[in-house]
Fold this protein.
Amino acid sequence: MNNPQQPLEYDAVLGGENQISSSHDLKMTTERAINLLKAGTAGIKAWNLFRQNETYLPSLEGVDLSGEHLTNANLQGVNLKNSKLVKANLTRVNLINADLQEVDLSESNLSDANLQGVNLSDAIFSEAELYQCDLESANLTETKFDNAYLASAKLQNSIIANTSFLNTNLEYADVTGTKFFFAYLNKTTNTNGTKGI
C-alpha cells in the first residue's frame, strides 16, 4: 500500500513532484497519465507498471499526444476518443478494445500494433504506417486510410463501411471474413496478394 506522504511509485519518473495528501489522491489522474506517456521510455515503463497493478483507467479522451514515442505502451481498453496522435510512434502498442473514435493518427507509426476489436469509426490514418498491424474485428466505419501503408495488416472480421483506402498499400493484407458495406479504392490502391477479396 502506498504511503500517503509519498509520491506514487509511477511518479518517480516525474521526479516525485506529485505529492499525495490523501487516499483520494492515489488514483491515476488524466494529467498524471499524460505526463507519464510523454516522459519517454521511463514513462512508458511506469505507465505499464501502473497498468499491471491497477484495474481502473483514467480517460484520455481529447488529449494531444502528437509526436510522442509510445512504443510498447499498454493502452488496452483506454478511451482515446477524439484525441490527436499525429506523427506519434505507436510501434507494438497494445490498443485492444480501446476507443479510438474520431482520433487523428495521421503520419503515425503503428507497425506491429494490436488494435483487435477497436472502435475506429471516423478515425484518420492518412499516411500512417500500419505494417503487420492487427485490426481484426475492428470497426472501420468511415475510417480514412488514404495514402497509408497497410501491407500484411490483419483485417479479418472487421467492419468496412464507407472506409477510404485511396492510394493505400494493402499488399498481402488479410480481409478474410470482413463485413464490406462500402470501401473507397482507386487505381493506385495496391491490393496485390490481399487475402479474402
Notes: Residues 1-6, 15-25 have pLDDT under 50 and may be disordered.
